[in-house]
Amino acid sequence: MARKVAIRKVRFGIRLKISIIMILGIAFASALIGLAVYNQHESKIKDTILRLSGTILKGAAEDAEQYLRLTQYLDKAKDLKPRQRAAVVKAIGESQKSMAGYFSSIIKKEEILDIAFLVDVDWRDVNVNWNRRDRARYRYFSRQNGSFFELDLYTSDGRPIRGSRGRDDAQLKPTVFSYYMQNMDTSSYLAFSESRKNDGKKFVIVGIPLFSDRKDAAIYDGYRDFRRTRVMSGEDLKKFKARRQEYRDLFLGRIVERGSGVEYDLVVDTDRKKRLVLDNLIGAVDMKPLSYEKLADFRKGFSDMFNESVEGGRVPLFRLKILLASMMKDYGLALKEPLAGEDLWKNVYRHARRNSVSVETLYGVDDLALMSFRMDLSGVLGIFLLRDSFYAEMEKNRKDILNLILSIFLRATIIALFFPTFIIRNVASLEEAALDIGKGNLSRRIEMKGSDELGRLADIINLMSANLEKAQKEMLEKQRMKAELNTAQQIQSALLPDGFPDIRGLSFGAYYMAQTESGGDYYDFIPMGEGRLGLAMADVSGHGVASGLVMAMTRTLLHIHCEKNGDTKKILEMINDYLYANTASNYFVTMFFGVLDVKSLQLRFSSAGHCHALVMRNGRIQEVPAGGIALGAVATDSISRLIESKTLQLQKGDYFIQYTDGVYESFNAANEEYGLERFHRALLDGFGKDPQEIVNHVVRSVDAFTGRVPQHDDITFFIIRAG
Amino acid sequence: MKLSIKWFSVTALIIGTVPAAVLFTWCAMNGFGAEIVRLFESVYPSGGFSILENMDKPVLNRVPGIIINTCYMAVDTFIAGFSFSSLYNLFVSKLTK
Q1: Per residue in A35-45, pLDDT tens?
Q2: Which residue of A has its CA nearest to B79?
């Protein structure tokens, strides 16, 4: 019994899924569009600020550079004469005054400018570690003050610390200075900060880098352009590499000249280069205190240790420093006066470069450029711009963009909720039709327009239901046919003897197996009275229902004529008359019919083209010639000449066997025929036994031979034993 | 009798959009019906592409505003048509059962 299939309820349906996907997609697209529009506005404002700030700051850049140059010179120059110092201070004052005048005039014109500032990067304090930017000096020009001044140092909670000389500005610290410390970018003037002052005003802080020498800026501008170079060919690549090496040497040289402790290796891959470097180092040491022997000893020791320090043709700078320091300590020596401190190592670098000793470092060219940039950076000139004046329009635009996005999003969401209805309607009609078909209405068809997947699915469902309907009709027809065939088989079975005649002195065995439900073979034992028994064996051409009907006709005719006539030939002729006149030309019947006198065991018989009968006597088989021609094939005039009446005398113990060709024309899987020889052998195997036992033995023999090969003809035979 | 939701929505879209497109174009050309357009633009944010806010600029600057406002009208009238026909069909099927 088929299990009932449950049909689920739709909870999270396609409609909802499509709506959610569409809404998410719309939200994502809206967010992207909004962000893009917002960024565009922001970029516009930044461009405006960049343009304005650049114009303002460039106007004061020259004075600012002059101011920084002089201030830093004054700090370094300790032995200036009072008159010289006064001149420098005066020049500083003039540049400061000029800047103040400039910013004052700008502030009057530009209400957006609030404070200008100048970061004085004093590298003696800041040193290589730029994070100590609190040591830089900050100077301001404010709208209120009208002149440059230095701010006090602020505590962490924002309170000023008196007398701290304008260092460590809490607002500037994380902005422009850090920006230039982290980016070697002379092209950008912008370093935004959304800072808020104590009075609640918001500012944008913008600055430009300043160098003590204008040529320094040109170097970095050149390097920036070089980084943008595109390599298009092998020649370009060569040039690119050569330029990169030039920049590497340039920046490394500038760093070394500035006295920074950057690490590098000297490439001393030949004895000449080794000697050059060694002589230069030894030459820097004041060796007057040494005796001649000690001097030779010092030179030898220095040379040996120098050679030990060389690895792979290179000697690192730090090893040279350690080596020199330890040797001087061991021999109690000092450097010559002009080369004390960092000057020695600058001299070593210059000497190496002069004598073609390569200098290599692990730092990349970008790292070297940034280090050099930091060291060359003299200060930062910047301004505080009132943020609100720029951003008022942007705030309005932000609101507009938000409204625009919300407006589009809401409409798109409504459409996203409605839109799946158009799809789901077709799905619903498909669902309804499929359910109807599932319930058994196979004649249901779906009408759906369109060339989409659902239309295709509708066509497929229509095809499926049409095929199911066809298959159902065929199945019903087959069932009806099977039922009819079963009925025919039952009728045909009823026409065959349902047992054997109970005649003293005779025993019987028989087997009948039709190939299909209805067969064309026939056998019969007909009591004819007066001690006579009719023996019939017939085989209608073909198989199936039609052959079965001819067989039924033949049987009826035989029984009718047996009652009136005992002449076997005459009986066959009469049957032929009827069959010839009333059956199709392709239906004919081979038949053996004999009348056995049960007392005398004399058999009178006639054969109409049927197989020879067999007599098994004394363990041997004899064929009984038959002859004749099949009934229904020719007219009676012709057949009477061909059919004969013959007589056969059986003896006690004899077996009389009659059969159809299906017995010996059985085939196995190798397409070999069972054959008369095997049939005879099977019969002889059972000699002396009961006829039914012999029948069973023969059947087993045939089955064993054919195996699983289906039976291809009706199989019928009977055996009678006399005595 | 039920309405075809799809075709009713399309009809509403055409009826609503065509006159609005004519109105927006006419207003962009010579300022006719500016107050009605202002009413529309007060609820149709255009992200800076407004018709009326660009009246002092060449006509081409107002074309995006015409397109945006017309698109708004098309979407809104379609939604209105869809909503109307859906609700109508719902009530018709409920009340005539």
Answers
A1: 887 788 778 87
A2: A415
